[in-house]
């Protein structure tokens, strides 16, 4: 139940958030607009012509009433400087509501009909602009400029610079109003502000009622979610943190001793403090389901637990370590402990390799070289700090790409993020990462916390990291042709795999397997390590490089479009599908499309390996 509540809560927040932005933008417009123009009164004449008539010259109202159908009201008014008796047969609450009138010449007793000529004359009388009449139309039903008007009206259009239209009610000759381009623009913002998307001219609309229910659900689901997290122990106040001893066992039920855990730190991070590392590709978000433990006594399960464990496993005490704290726990069995360790990483070199991607080289302090399979990643601990939205020392060639980014200093809380190593450990004792800046889409959102923190580090500065974690690597003892597909900073693990299989440095050729590398970027500036791969393809007939640009300039001679589409076009030329292995890393949309396409082609799932984009 809770996963559905969380999902609906998120979608409801999108709907409410969009409408809040519309309210904000329309409210700003209302503060800046010219209210006279927005009312459509640019060329409206407000002078009133007084008609002086001696009462004895007018027909007796009783005579008029006897000559026409029964009326509920008789009033004296004037049209075009002539006195008029207006007989009201049906009277609505307001003038724009449904009404029925008869107009009578107060001198002669003859009925007056508002025809096209009279409508034009009335329109001219209320108009003070330079235009002439362009067209006159009798409207029945909804009038777009005045949606509250329920009675037929004449629309008289003038050919001035603001396209003025004057509306005259056909039954009474009343000026319904003036409208022009300024009023129509203002009406759009009124529509957005009051959610009058069906142009009813009223707050009491179906969309307003639906929005009220969406907002109510957003509030209720948020409240339910908050209560649920509280019952599951997800809120821990640091002021009340204390130490609690927990007995640990390995998966063979052998004792690992008794360790103390802070009740303020989740079990996954608490184990790290004791140099015990559980696998976790999501950094503690509860989405990967890797940090499995068995807890005794069995505490309340979280929605993330319920996604990754069966009811039987939940009853046995299986939980995700990232979702729970040491409160009320006596025993904990670790189902899978990695060989990963916590390292202090010192930055040795940093450089831009595209407008928004930097290459960072680290060395571990106080330890020998780390041995790992190509495609492994490290989990970085980002401390609470201040970061800059625009990095220093941007190369001149890349500065135009940063012109739209606002310069600001922002504070952020501590977090963890995972990044793949971009070189295999056989080539260098340094750990190399390609990290992409994530600029903020608007001022209300922070830029990418980890990317800006790490990419703003200077040589000599250090950061803590866990790893390496080996989740995405080349199948052993296989001679199948390798097909690599990537985009953006998904380059990192794929470059490491190429380095491991062939050796980018060309100092060694570790494999005789044929490799096809399809890599997508926006333009040539974003095509990282291109020179290295072109050179490698020239020197090694087993390696084939296919760069693809989605927005190339006129000088680009290579493939254009999206990398997944170019792969699909060339797939049949790569050989028998049963003799191919696929390695995919990049944005989620790219991976989903590639994997779906390969599965439709009949590629076995065992021959498709992918790295969750980090």
From TrEMBL:
Gene3D superfamilies noted in UniProt: 3.10.20.30, Nucleotide-binding domain of ferredoxin-NADP reductase (FNR) module, Translation factors
Keyword vocabulary terms for this entry: FAD, Flavoprotein, Membrane, Transmembrane, Transmembrane helix, Ubiquinone
SUPFAM superfamilies: 2Fe-2S ferredoxin-like (SSF54292), Ferredoxin reductase-like, C-terminal NADP-linked domain (SSF52343), Riboflavin synthase domain-like (SSF63380)
Ranges of residues in domain FAD-binding FR-type: 340-475
GO terms of molecular function: iron-sulfur cluster binding; oxidoreductase activity
Chain segments annotated as transmembrane: 208-227
Matching Pfam families: Fer2, NAD_binding_1
Name of this chain's protein: Na+-transporting NADH:ubiquinone oxidoreductase, subunit NqrF
């Amino acid at each position: 139940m809770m996963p559905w509540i969380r999902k609906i809560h998120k979608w409801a927040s999108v709907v409410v958030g969009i409408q809040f932005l519309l309210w904000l933008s329309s409210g700003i417009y209302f503060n800046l607009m010219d209210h006279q123009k927005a009312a459509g009164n640019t060329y409206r004449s407000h002078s009133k012509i007084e008609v002086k008539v001696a009462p004895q010259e007018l027909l007796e109202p009783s005579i008029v009433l006897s000559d026409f159908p029964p009326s509920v009201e008789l009033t004296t008014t004037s049209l075009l400087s002539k006195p008029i008796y207006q007989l009201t047969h049906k009277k609505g609450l307001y003038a724009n509501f449904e009404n029925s009138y008869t107009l009578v010449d107060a001198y002669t007793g003859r009925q007056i009909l508002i025809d096209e000529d009279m409508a034009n004359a009335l329109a001219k009388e209320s108009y003070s602009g330079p235009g002439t009449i362009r067209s006159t139309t009798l409207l029945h039903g909804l009038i777009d400029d005045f949606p509250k008007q329920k009675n037929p009206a004449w629309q008289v259009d003038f050919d001035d610079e603001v396209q003025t239209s004057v509306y005259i009610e056909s039954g009474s000759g009343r000026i319904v109003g003036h409208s022009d381009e300024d009023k129509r623009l203002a009406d759009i913002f009124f529509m957005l502000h009051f959610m009058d998307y069906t142009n009813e001219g009223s707050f009491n609309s179906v969309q307003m009622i639906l929005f009220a229910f969406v907002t109510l659900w957003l509030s209720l689901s948020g409240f339910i979610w908050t209560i649920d997290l509280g019952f599951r122990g997800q809120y821990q106040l640091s002021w009340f943190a204390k130490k609690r001893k927990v007995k640990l066992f390995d998966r063979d039920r052998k004792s690992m001793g008794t360790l103390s855990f802070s009740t303020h730190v989740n079990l996954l991070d608490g184990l790290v403090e004791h140099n015990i590392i559980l696998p976790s590709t999501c950094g503690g978000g509860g989405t990967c389901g890797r940090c499995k433990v068995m807890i005794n006594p069995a505490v309340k399960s979280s929605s993330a637990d319920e996604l990754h464990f069966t009811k039987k496993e939940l009853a046995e005490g299986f939980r995700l370590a990232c979702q729970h704290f040491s409160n009320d726990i006596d025993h904990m069995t670790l189902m899978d402990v990695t060989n990963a360790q916590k390292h202090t990483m010192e930055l040795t070199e940093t450089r831009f390799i595209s407008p928004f991607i930097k290459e960072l080289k680290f060395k571990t302090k106080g330890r020998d070289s780390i041995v790992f399979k190509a495609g492994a990643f490290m989990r970085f601990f980002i401390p609470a700090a201040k970061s800059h939205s625009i990095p220093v020392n941007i190369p001149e060639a890349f500065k135009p790409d940063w012109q739209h980014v606002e310069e600001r200093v922002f504070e952020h809380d501590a977090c963890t993020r995972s990044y793949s190593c971009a070189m295999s450990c056989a080539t260098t004792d340094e750990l190399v990462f390609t990290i992409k800046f994530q600029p903020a889409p608007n001022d209300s959102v922070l830029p990418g916390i980890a990317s800006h923190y790490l990419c703003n580090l200077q040589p000599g500065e250090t950061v803590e990291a866990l790893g390496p974690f080996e989740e995405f690597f080349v199948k052993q003892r296989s001679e199948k042709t390798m097909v690599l597909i990537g985009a953006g900073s998904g380059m990192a693990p794929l470059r490491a795999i190429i380095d491991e299989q062939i050796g980018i440095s060309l100092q060694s050729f570790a494999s005789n397997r044929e490799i096809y590398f399809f890599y997508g970027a926006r333009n040539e500036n974003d095509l990282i390590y291109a020179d290295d791969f072109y050179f490698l393809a020239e020197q090694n007939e087993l390696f084939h490089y296919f760069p693809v640009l989605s927005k190339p300039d006129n000088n680009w001679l290579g493939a254009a479009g999206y990398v997944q589409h170019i792969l699909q076009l060339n797939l049949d030329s790569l050989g028998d599908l049963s003799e191919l292995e696929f390695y995919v890393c990049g944005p989620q949309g790219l991976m989903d499309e590639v994997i779906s396409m390969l599965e439709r082609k009949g590629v076995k799932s065992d021959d498709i390996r992918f790295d969750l984009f980090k």
